[in-house]
């Protein structure tokens, strides 16, 4: 079982099962039908039907083999469907405090990184690289930010560049800071994802960065998936919506990372 937070039961009511699916897709942005079926101990066909119904009700978007959250379908306008938007906005405010005039930075895709891009002050001079189409669009409206979109094959679901071309371009840059998200994070297992292509991109970003900053809501703590991005101590700073002294962050303080 890769979604460690779920405790499934084949006797779960349909409404409870579908709410669990919505909770997981909102938290992790994207889910696999096979993972949810395993976690809830029901058939893949059952989960596939649930996802189809939820898609028809406009509560998520069904994609090949899984589903994505409505909030993940971002664009240049602020999306009001974003899960835990207040927590993500609080993380973005903390992250903005790290920015310095003249810095060369990288901003990842995803809803929390989108919040960061949205609130960067208009008067701050930055060179910002991104693989995210929505992030690039938001930053393009800020006069003092030089926006460089890293090209490659476009992941239609995540709206980011992936593949060999994107990885090659990343190898030719050295970022002062990279601000990245993750699907899953654990003090022991590090950062993980279920998408192999996204893992390769994140590895390249971390390698290209002087300092890597992880932006993650606390609900993602203590979860893991198939493919490993990096050990937790490959991250220089982790920002959550919690206060640094919160007990949930204690396992991460045993590693050589800064908690904000």
Walk me through the topology.
Blueprint: H1 14-28, E1 30-32, H2 33-40, H3 44-56, E2 60-63, E3 66-69, H4 85-96, E4 104-107, H5 111-119, E5 126-130, H6 133-139, E6 145-149, E7 153-155, E8 160-162, H7 164-170, E9 175-180, E10 184-186, E11 190-193, H8 196-207, E12 209-215, E13 227-230, E14 237-239, E15 258-259
Parallel strand pairs: 4-5, 4-9, 5-6, 9-12, 12-14, 14-15
Antiparallel strand pairs: 1-3, 2-3, 7-8, 10-11, 11-13
Helix pairs in contact: 1-3, 2-3, 4-5, 5-6
Describe the structure.
The structure is a single chain. By secondary structure, the chain is of the alpha/beta class. The protein is 32% helix and 23% strand. The chain is built from eight helices and 15 strands. Strands 6-5-4-9-12-14-15 form a seven-stranded parallel sheet, sandwiched between helices. It is globular and about 55 Å long. Mean pLDDT is 89; it is low at 1-5.
Strand order of the largest sheet: 6-5-4-9-12-14-15
pLDDT under 50 segments (min length 5)? 1-5
Percent of residues in helical segments? Answer: 25-40%
Mean pLDDT, nearest integer? 89
Number of DSSP strand runs: 15
- Envelope shape: globular
Strand content: 15-25%
Q: Report the end-to-end length measured between terminal Cα atoms.
A: 31 Å
The structural class is alpha/beta
- Radius of gyration, Cα only, in angstroms? 18 Å
What series of H and E elements makes up the topology?
A: HEHHEEHEHEHEEEHEEEHEEEE
**What's the multimeric state?**
single chain
Count up the helices: 8
Major beta sheet, specifics? 7 strands, parallel
């Amino acid at each position: 079982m890769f979604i460690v937070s779920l405790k499934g039961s084949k006797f779960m009511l349909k409404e409870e099962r579908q709410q669990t699916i919505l909770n997981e897709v909102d938290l992790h942005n994207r889910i696999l039908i096979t993972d949810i079926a395993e976690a809830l101990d029901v058939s893949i066909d059952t989960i596939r039907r649930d996802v189809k119904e939820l898609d028809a009700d406009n509560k998520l978007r069904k994609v090949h083999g899984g589903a994505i959250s409505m909030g993940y379908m971002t664009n240049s306008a602020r999306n009001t469907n974003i899960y835990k938007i207040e927590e993500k906005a609080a993380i973005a405010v903390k992250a903005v405090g790290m920015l310095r005039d003249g810095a060369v930075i990288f901003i990842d895709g995803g809803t929390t990184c989108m919040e960061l891009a949205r609130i960067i002050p208009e008067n701050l001079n930055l060179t910002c690289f991104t693989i995210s189409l929505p992030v690039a669009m938001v930053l393009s409206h800020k006069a003092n930010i030089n926006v460089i979109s890293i090209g490659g094959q476009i992941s239609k679901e995540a709206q980011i560049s992936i593949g060999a071309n994107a990885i090659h371009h990343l190898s030719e840059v050295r970022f002062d800071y990279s601000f990245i998200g993750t699907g899953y994070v654990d003090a022991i297992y590090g950062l993980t994802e279920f998408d192999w292509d996204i893992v390769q991109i994140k590895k390249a970003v971390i390698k290209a960065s002087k300092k890597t900053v992880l932006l993650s809501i606390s609900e993602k703590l203590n979860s893991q998936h198939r493919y490993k991005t990096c050990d937790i101590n490959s991250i220089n700073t982790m920002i959550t919506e919690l206060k640094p002294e919160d007990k949930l962050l204690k396992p991460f303080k045993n590693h050589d990372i800064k908690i904000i």
